[in-house]
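Hello support,

Our group uses your service weekly, and this is the first time we've seen a run hang past the timeout. The protein is histidine kinase. I'm not sure whether the cause is the sequence or the server load. Input pasted verbatim:
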Amino acid sequence: MTRPNAWRSATTRLIAIYGALFAVWGLVLVGVIQWETTRYLNTVIDQMLVQRMHYLVTTDMQRLPGAVDAAATIDPHGIMSVGLFDAGGQALAGNINKLPADLPPDDQVRLLARGMPRPDRDAGTVRARALATRLADGRVLVIAKDTSTIDGLGAIVWRALLWAISLTIIPGLLGGFLLRRGPEKRIRALQEASEPIRQGDLSKRLPMSGRGDELDVLAGIVNTMLSEIERLMSEVKGVCDNIAHDLRTPLTRLRARLYRAQQQLDGHPEAALVESSITDIDAVLGRFRALLRVSELEDSHRSACFDEVDLGDVLRQVHDFYAPVAEDRGQPFELDIQAMDRARGDAHLLFEALANLVGNAIKFTPNGGTVRLKARMDSRGPRIDILDSGPGIPADERDAVTRRFYRGDNSRTTPGSGLGLSIVSAIVRLHGFALDIGDSAYGARITLYCYSVKPGEVPGTCLSRTMPETREEARAVGEPART
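Update from on-call engineer: The timeout came from a worker crash unrelated to the input. Re-ran successfully.
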């Protein structure tokens, strides 16, 4: 059972989307807050600068240097810096030692791009907003306000955002992990319940929790579909079985009457015509028996009687049974059995499946050809190969030959009902094994994998594309490895 990828679950995606949206929205929100706060505080600083400038400008010009020094004295840290300069830019009073080059005396508050030095700092400058005005006597008065408070407030806002994101995302991840476990557990339960359905048991249903959520709605829809499919399949199967069963009785009676008529007509020309009719009726009865046999094998309850089977003994019985037939056709019939593990199944059914496969190999191999029966262990379990030098089955027909009544172009002129491989497929599917139809180095090959298939592989079908062989396994049966 394939475990769902936790990172691809809907809950994980929702948490990731929520976290991304929260982070983006938090950045936008903090950006707006910082912009509004900065704009408001800049307005307050500008008003303070304008008011302080108005106060100093209205002071008596003779007393202005003293007022400027007094303002600088009460602000030793230079948070609100004041400076008075002569027309040549020389400092006359205050704690601003040099006239800022990027500050024209136009009575406009400006942000100093190069910043201003602070007396309480050894090196470097701080961001500041400043205002300069030219007095009537040509002197220049400068007032500057440190804006590091605004920067500090912005840093506090960004730190608050980081804390908010961390305190939201971390619990969100923990909560998402806990929330994901419930749906993940239910998905695994649905997967386990769907495995028998995938293998053909339409009587199974998907479990429902009773919560009425999306998964329950989906499971309910699937269960309704399964019920309808099971009903339709049962009706079709019942009709086919009833037809085969009901027609078998009158056909058997007809055969008995024709046989009696043949006995009475012994020596007459009409006896050959009656014998031909009996042969045709036997063929129809054989088809009906095969149909009923397939229906019987499709009952999965038969697997309850499975036991450990020695595949080597079964293969020896098949070889002993068909060796005289192969000898009559001049076909060497080779048996190669290596040590193998036991397989769980029904020995009689496995004998029937292998007998069908070997019988087909002998029938379609030309007289004088070779038939080989090999058994060994591969990387996953016991494997049985039936190889012959016949024409084989074309690649485009290998998925169809296990269907009922299908007959390929190579077999239309050969006597048969087209149900032999259907019976084999039903037996293999009942055991949960796999059947592979392919080519060998010198002819046809049919492989029976006597172990349970993996998830994603359907029992009883042609698995040549889903069960690749290693080079060592290919060499063991004398054929090229599949890639």
